[in-house]
Write a structure and sequence with these properties.
The chain contains 4 helices and no strands. The chain is mainly alpha-helical. It has one domain.
């Protein structure tokens, strides 16, 4: 997987979704739902940057290619589960989707712990 491309595409999506939220949803969502949507954009953006960092660390040999992939997939899963569930929750109002959000948070935590593990086990980490 080309994690640089994945990170760049996710960042483009985060900017687009953020603009949509600021312009297209303002006045359509209540303050709570807008806050939920903004939280989704923030975590989406930060973890997409994290994927770019992981790609860079893989390229310079600070982590292995396998470690880059494991970390990238966990962060991507976190974006889909955490931010994705919050986007849908904010727009649809279906509160049951909030049950998925913690799984995304766990994927984020697992991704960062995986990165730490991979950096510690790499001779160049």
């Amino acid at each position: 997987m080309n994690w640089t491309a994945v990170g760049a595409l996710l960042l483009a999506c985060a900017v687009g979704l953020g603009a949509f939220g600021a312009h297209g949803l303002k006045g359509r969502l209540d303050a709570y739902a807008l806050g939920v949507y903004e939280k989704a954009v923030l975590y989406h953006f930060l973890h997409a940057l994290g994927i770019l960092l992981v790609a860079l660390l893989g390229r310079v040999g600070a982590i292995s290619a396998a470690g880059e992939a494991r970390t990238g997939w966990l962060l991507l899963a976190g974006i889909v589960l955490f931010s994705g569930s919050l986007y849908v929750l904010a727009i649809s109002g279906i509160r049951a989707l909030g049950a998925i959000t913690p799984l995304g948070g766990l994927a984020f935590i697992a991704g960062w712990l995986m990165l730490a593990y991979e950096a510690l086990r790499s001779p160049r980490g």
